[in-house]
Write a structure and sequence with these properties.
This protein is α+β, with helices and mostly antiparallel strands. Helices cover 18% and strands 34% of the residues. It has a single domain, classed as PK beta-barrel domain-like (M1 Pyruvate Kinase, Domain 3, Beta Barrel), CATH 2.40.33.20. The protein has five helices and eleven strands. The strands form two sheets. Strands 1-6-5-9-8-7-11 form a seven-stranded mixed β-barrel.
Length: 170
């Protein structure tokens, strides 16, 4: 569990100040291991399980959903020596723009109508070497996104907002 500074401290106030809500830009499901991601316009997040139709559904509450920042896609592409990287290539469920996902550590947030909390970083795996070419694994380091637990299920749709609700301990 991430321990946040007191909300009324100077650092707590800085960490709580986000410039705007985030926004869902892309949603993808992995129906099975080794199968290409399937882009969808909406998905159902199920409490303590995962996204309906995703291979991780029910396997781990800690990895119910994976998130990556849209702003990191050009960085990964540049580090891998590519012009661009499609979201499906990186095998994360949701691409979010507009806010730094690291700022969500220790906080609960709404993604569409689902309530989530970050559980751990979503580090790259060896598949990134094949997907992005030589050096792809290292291109993803620090840009792999985050895993989140689904505290309360709900629908996610492209264009939905991501908004902070509270500290996770609340």
């Amino acid at each position: 569990m991430t321990v946040l500074p007191p909300a009324d401290s100077a650092l707590g106030k800085l960490m709580a100040a986000l410039p705007r809500p985030g926004r869902i830009e892309w949603i993808g499901l992995r129906p099975a291991r080794g199968v290409a991601m399937r882009e969808v316009d909406e998905a159902l997040a199920e409490t303590g399980k995962g996204l309906a139709g995703d291979r991780y559904q029910g396997a781990s509450g800690k990895r119910g959903i994976t998130l990556i920042q849209a702003e990191h896609l050009p960085a990964v592409a540049a580090l891998a020596g590519l012009d661009a990287v499609a979201p499906a290539t990186l095998r994360r469920n949701v691409v979010v723009s507009g806010l730094p996902l690291i700022a969500l550590k220790g906080r609960r947030f709404r993604l569409g109508s689902a309530l989530l909390e970050i559980t751990e970083s979503c580090d790259p795996c060896s598949l990134m070497e094949a997907a992005l070419g030589p050096g792809g694994y290292n291109a993803m380091r620090g840009h792999g996104g985050w895993c989140a637990r689904i505290v309360e299920g709900g629908a996610l749709r492209r264009g939905d907002a991501l908004t902070v609700v509270s500290d996770a301990a609340a």
